[in-house]
Amino acid sequence: MPDAKWFVAGKTNLSYNCLDGQIKAGRGQKVAILWEGEPEAQPGTGGEVRRITYQQLKDDVCRFATA
Question: Which residues contact 2 (CB under 8 A, 6 or more apart)?
């Protein structure tokens, strides 16, 4: 078995890297998650689309963390 080691004694905050860092860089209003549902039963009407910005996602994460 290989003796691979990654980030030995390293620490990282993924929430900061993924959310706070983007917001701090001025991208808080950019879309972080684009979700597209299945198409509607009627052809051509399209399905549900949800866009969640970095700021909205951070707010949701903070709300969830303090619940």
Answer: none
